[in-house]
Amino acid sequence: MFKNIASIEDIRPFVAGKPEIKWARHTNGVTVGCYMFQDKSTFDSPEALECRGIAFDDQGRVLSRPLHKFFNVGERPNVFDLPTLAHMSAIYAVYEKLDGSIISTSKLPDGGWALRSRKSYTSDVVGIAKDLIVNASVGDDEWGLAHFCALVTEQGFTACFELTSPDAQIVMPQQRTLLRLLHVRDNFSGEYVMMDPDHPVHQWIATFDVPMCPLLLQSPNEEQIRSLMESIAQDETREGVVIQYTSGDMVKLKTPWYLRLHKSISFMRERDIAELALLGELDDVRANLQAVGIDTFEVDTIERLVKNKLLDMDSEVNVALKNDANLDRKSFAIKYNDHQYFGLMMAGYTGKEIDFASFYRKHRLDQDFTMRTLLPSAAADSPVDGGVKS
Questions:
Q1: N or C: which end of the chain has fewer CB within 10 A?
Q2: Does residue 125 contact residue 169 with C-beta atoms inside 8 Å?
């Protein structure tokens, strides 16, 4: 199902009409393609699904191919619904859904390798992972990870880990910092090579004692799947599960407990929906509203409004950066000192990542969206089942 990608031109022309997908050149010479924000039409092609941090060198050659974008069970018409007898045999495995941050390996233009998050090589979570891997002393359990990462990268693959840490908590409390391998992906074909039992990656994992994401079921039968669905409905210990099919595609299924904890349904106010859109977390809301039979028209409308506001900001800031790129820093700062987006412009001028979503959330969200309740009263009082059907 995945497209062969050797060059940036295998992706970029196909997403050129999506202004929410940006191509950022980093100081290490790597160009990263990633969505800034999303709506229902963002991920409508195989090429767009890869724009979740795919990276290329200055010659356009692919360097890193993290996990493709995948969705919640039942969230999209083309996404598998809950496992049924019709496609039970297509399930390859079920993994625990960890509540952390994705960290991937990346080859560098100079031939070395680095760790990265979706959009950054220098973020806080990358620093935590780097401390764990690169700076670990000989004899620590994690020491083999550095060798594993180097080998995987050298062979043209991307290792995708999940970082969970008390210093980078998402929702669930974390007792210690852990980095666990989710998948290893072929940079060219996009295949998840750990699905091949004869692939040498399994020997590398064993040699370097790589910590793994918990595997809950392998090639499960009907009884195992039904039991899993029942346990998820009652589970109050984990975020959920990821179901992977033999095609390599995946879907997320989160526990009702986690969804309530994450306010996916509990706070259905206009401003809350806008904030979730900024955070890229509306997939949970949409899937679960549909599961309880609630029309998502207003949610979709708010998401579209947020997208348009961010695009307007992006356009205004980048016009200034383009028109006055020849100014020295002092002159640029003086010219735009009173502009409402001065901080964003200076970030772009100095080569830093421009975080439009955080800026909008801090400075404009309260002005543009109210606390009006979107759910009808009956729906607001209904229990949320997280999409689990009997």
A1: C
A2: no
